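Subject: design request, 147 residues
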């Protein structure tokens, strides 16, 4: 079965929570209530990738004015290196552009070299370092690109 991209739904909350916990260390991962809040905010959009009947990746983004913000992109370790991240990002970008955004930004842990390389391959550029973004001593990069 091939991967299917669809809207992230309320029914995905538990699977999304488990995936986020697997993808990120405790200081960075979202808890259930934070994920629910991110999914339900005005201007939020959620995109899921289902493969083999289960959630293998998802992204949550939002639009504020002409700026899109990629809040999180999570891909199961077993589903990495198959192009799903690129497909997921392309879909999120399309939806943000259709909603009126012309730029997208994100934050990434400065230690996450794989994610930084992935975002650079998508055309993102680092615009600044955000001190202690993920907690005391855990800096993040802000990265931006046009849509």
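Subject: RE: design request

Done. Sequence follows.
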């Amino acid at each position: 079965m091939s991967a299917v991209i669809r809207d992230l739904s309320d029914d995905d909350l538990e699977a999304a929570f488990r995936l986020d916990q697997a993808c990120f260390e405790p200081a960075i991962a979202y808890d259930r209530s934070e994920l629910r809040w991110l999914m339900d905010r005005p201007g939020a959009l959620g995109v899921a990738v289902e493969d083999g009947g289960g959630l293998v990746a998802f992204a949550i983004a939002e639009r504020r004015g002409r700026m899109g913000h990629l809040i999180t992109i999570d891909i199961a370790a077993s589903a990495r290196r198959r192009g799903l991240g690129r497909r997921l990002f392309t879909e999120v970008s399309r939806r943000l552009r259709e909603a009126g955004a012309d730029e997208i930004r994100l934050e990434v842990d400065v230690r996450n070299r794989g994610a930084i390389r992935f975002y650079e391959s998508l055309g993102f550029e680092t615009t600044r370092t955000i001190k202690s973004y993920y907690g005391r001593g855990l800096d993040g990069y802000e990265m931006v690109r046009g849509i």
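The mean pLDDT is 95.
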